[in-house]
């Protein structure tokens, strides 16, 4: 008898799934805009490329501190309370841009970004297992990749907003922090509205939705630290976000230094760059119907390695096109690693999600390393992410397996 294929989600989960997916878009906007802030603060606050990498340290460093508390909060109070808590922190961070802009202080901006990062860390910790729980575990990879597709849409919107309100403003008006203040206050208001709307959503009871498969009994009794596929997922996620943060942070610098674009032109190309990630996620979600998620992850990691080698050569449009392709290949990595790591964790799923989210701290340090190289040659800085993609490829082809 042929097995009936599980659907992406169930009708009773549709409204909740749509709202959870919108959260992916929100933090996608914020992450992409922080990469525009890199260049804006280089111009306005006169910081170096390496110093501007401290923006990512502030945002991604928050994941190291907040992911575990967020997981414990979610376990104690549930998915809905976790989302509302994350949105409250997110909005608070955006409103702190007002005193930071008034003081013209890079340190205060980093504090605001840290609080904002705590909100994003909470949302990511909650939203990934939340989305995974909204249907069969068999289709959790597809569900997370679909949600992350809208995260990619957010990363397209982010550079478009940042280019228009920040780099355009700094180009026309000199040292302008008023545009930063106004922009982030507007984002804070929008996030507050989302929080109010989400508070009225009736979330179904999901305690059993992701945990209850017949083969989970042994995994539920096995401590997380003994589940090797989960441990390697945390490691792979660390290197994955390290590569992402470094690649994104210096995309505008690459356009300016290697291609000779103005800052605004380079930021506009970043919209295309992020559109490649959105395309990759939609394509990846489709391909997973025919190709095992781990195999597709390994293929995309190999593509990223080849693309990085070409980017580092600074061959004009050939290398710039390869830089665009890195984001296409990166597209499925975060959600697929996340989903593979959560497989068969049973009652440990929520705690496991917090540890995989904490792996995002890789993005806190890698831009600093790439920045040190980029100060001398931004193209050669793209040799460094190759190390990250090699780790991901090994995870995809060998280390993803659940040991029973």
From TrEMBL:
CDD domains: MFS_FucP_like. The keyword Calcium does not apply. The chain crosses the membrane at residues 12-33, 53-74, 81-101, 107-127, 148-167, 182-201, 230-254, 266-284, 296-318, 324-342, 354-374, 380-400. It is a multi-pass membrane protein. Gene3D superfamilies: MFS general substrate transporter like domains. Pfam families: MFS_1. Residues 16-404 form the Major facilitator superfamily (MFS) profile domain. PROSITE patterns: MFS. Keywords: Cell membrane, Membrane, Transmembrane, Transmembrane helix. InterPro entries: MFS, MFS_dom, MFS_trans_sf, MFS_TsgA-like. This is Sugar MFS transporter. It is found in: Cell inner membrane.
């Amino acid at each position: 008898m042929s097995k009936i294929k599980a659907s992406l989600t169930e009708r009773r989960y549709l409204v909740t799934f749509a709202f959870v997916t919108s959260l992916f878009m929100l933090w996608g906007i914020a992450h992409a805009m922080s990469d525009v802030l890199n260049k804006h603060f280089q111009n306005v606050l006169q910081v170096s490329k390496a110093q501007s990498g401290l923006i990512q340290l502030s945002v991604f460093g928050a994941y190291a501190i907040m992911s575990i508390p967020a997981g414990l909060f979610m376990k104690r109070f549930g998915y809905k309370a976790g989302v509302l808590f994350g949105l409250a922190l997110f909005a608070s961070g955006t409103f702190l841009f007002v005193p930071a802009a008034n003081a013209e202080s890079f340190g205060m901006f980093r504090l605001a970004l840290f609080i904002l990062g705590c909100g994003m860390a909470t949302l990511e910790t909650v939203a990934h297992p939340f989305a995974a729980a909204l249907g069969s575990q068999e289709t959790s990879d597809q569900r997370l990749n679909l949600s992350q597709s809208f995260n990619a849409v957010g990363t397209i919107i982010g550079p478009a907003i940042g280019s228009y309100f920040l780099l355009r403003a700094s180009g026309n008006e000199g040292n302008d922090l008023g545009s930063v203040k106004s922009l982030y206050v507007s984002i804070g208001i929008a996030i507050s509205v989302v929080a109010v709307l989400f508070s009225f959503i009736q979330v179904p009871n999901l305690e059993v939705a992701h945990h209850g498969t017949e083969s989970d009994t042994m995994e539920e009794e096995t401590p997380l630290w003994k589940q090797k596929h989960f441990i390697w997922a945390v490691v792979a996620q660390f290197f994955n976000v390290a590569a992402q943060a470094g690649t994104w942070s210096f995309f505008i610098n690459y356009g300016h230094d290697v291609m000779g674009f103005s800052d605004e032109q380079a930021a506009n190309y970043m919209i295309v760059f992020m559109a490649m990630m959105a395309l990759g996620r939609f394509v990846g979600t489709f391909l997973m119907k025919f190709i095992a998620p781990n195999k597709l992850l390994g293929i995309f990691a190999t593509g990223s390695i080849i693309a990085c080698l070409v980017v580092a050569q600074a061959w004009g449009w050939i290398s710039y096109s390869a830089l665009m392709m890195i984001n296409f290949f990166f597209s499925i990595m975060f959600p697929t690693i996340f989903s593979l790591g959560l497989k068969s964790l049973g009652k440990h799923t929520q705690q496991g999600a917090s540890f995989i989210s904490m792996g995002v701290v890789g993005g806190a340090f890698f831009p600093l390393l790439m920045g040190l190289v980029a100060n001398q040659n931004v193209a050669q800085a793209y040799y460094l992410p190759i190390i990250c993609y090699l780790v991901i490829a090994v995870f995809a082809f060998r280390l993803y397996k659940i040991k029973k």
